[in-house]
Design brief:
Layout (H helix, E strand, L loop, with lengths): L5 H9 L3 H12 L5 H8 L7 E7 L5 H14 L4 E6 L8 H4 L14 E6 L7 H15 L4 E7 L8 H4 L2 E6 L6 H5 L3 H4 L2 E4 L7 H14 L14 E3 L8 H17 L2 H31 L1 H11 L5 H14 L6
Helix pairs in contact: 1-2, 1-3, 2-6, 4-11, 6-12
The structure holds guanosine-5'-diphosphate.
Length: 327
């Protein structure tokens, strides 16, 4: 069978064909050479989706909450894409989506598209691939895209820089406690959810967290003055999920009112440009390592004919004026 052209794939994906969406995301994972053309075709059709990030330690209930949120958005007649970012394994599909048992109820719903994203060893990794996969879902007409990632702070993908709204999930008895988890969460959370509110210790977790937020004083400048609310939920029973949806809507209204939404989206685009540029420079640097320029400069430095700064200037000038072999 003839491979579909970029235009055919993009047309099919924007018409809502899930196979075309899947194919485009696979091309992103593979860092396909077709991406340049595909992104150019997608760009004018994107920019409508509301991007919601969801993060927390393993076991806090992210996939359960994601599934419950999908149901809540579907009940509002919104089309929902789910992107599960999987840093654990580029080859097995990883543990994050694993069985996705909790997603099964959405498997046959044409208004829902669920996909895990792995980077298949591409130099730029997931921080390179994720915004591009997001653009695919956005252009494919999903009203809401939920991006689920493990962990806070150390995550390979900085979810807060991608999302319009970042939900940070905590749960009692997770072993790490609020204090241990606090590195970074105050800066990135737009909405806190204490999940497993049916469990002993939930009240403690809630109190610790609200105390921590109060101690932190006025909201971080990165949030532009928004004070993240702390909500309780029992995701496995769908309890508290409507309140989470309301909080996301409140946050969005606030973002729009304060002009922060556009600023966030520009920051996201800036990050994406930087990732693509850095990756191209790295590729080009790899080409350079294989080529003769770097070797001859190195020989000159060893021979005392030039110094490493001058040599580096020549390398940087060379990087800027030539194309890498790929990407
Ligand atoms: P993830 O690793 O963060 O995606 O967490 P999961 O969604 O896979 O949930 C981990 C476990 O916690 C599963 O066994 C869920 O059924 C359970 N779980 C999720 N939400 C709740 C909740 O609100 N209360 C209780 N008691 N268990 C929950």
């Amino acid at each position: 069978m003839r491979a579909a052209s970029a235009t055919e794939l993009v047309d099919a994906a924007t018409a809502g064909n899930p196979r075309a969406v899947a194919r485009l995301i696979s091309l992103v994972e593979d860092a396909s050479g077709q991406l340049r053309e595909i992104m150019a075709l997608l760009a004018p059709r994107a920019g409508h989706a509301q991007v919601i990030g969801l993060t927390g330690s393993p076991g806090v209930g992210k996939s359960t909450s994601t599934s419950a949120l999908v149901s809540a958005f579907r009940a509002r007649d919104l089309r929902v894409g789910v992107l599960a970012i999987d840093p654990s394994s580029p080859f097995t599909g990883g543990a994050l989506l694993g069985d996705r048992v909790r997603m099964q109820e959405h498997a046959t719903d044409p208004g829902v598209y669920i996909r895990s994203l792995a980077s298949r060893g591409h130099l730029g990794g997931l921080s390179w691939a994720t915004p591009q996969a997001l653009r695919v879902l956005d252009a494919a007409g999903f009203d809401v895209v939920l991006v689920e990632t493990v962990g806070v702070g150390q995550a390979e993908v900085d979810i807060a820089s991608l999302a319009d709204c970042t939900l940070v999930l905590l749960a009692p008895g997770m072993g790490d406690g609020v204090q241990a988890a606090k590195a970074g969460i105050l800066e990135i959370a737009d909405v806190f959810v204490v999940n497993k509110a049916d469990r002993d210790g939930a009240e403690n977790t809630y109190r610790e967290l609200t105390h921590m937020i109060a101690l932190a004083g006025p909201a971080a400048a990165s949030q532009g003055g928004w004070r993240p609310p702390v909500l309780k939920a029992v995701a496995s029973r769908g309890e508290g999920i409507a309140e989470v949806v309301d909080a996301i809507a409140d946050h969005r209204a606030w973002l729009v009112e304060h002009g922060v939404l556009d600023a966030r989206r520009r920051r996201r685009a800036a990050d994406e440009i930087e990732q693509i540029a850095l990756t191209r420079l790295r590729l080009r640097m790899g080409d350079l390592r294989d080529g003769s320029l770097l070797h001859s400069l190195a020989a000159d430095v060893v021979a005392g004919l030039t110094d490493p700064y001058t040599a580096a200037d020549r390398v940087v000038a060379g990087l800027a004026t030539t194309q890498p072999r790929h990407a």
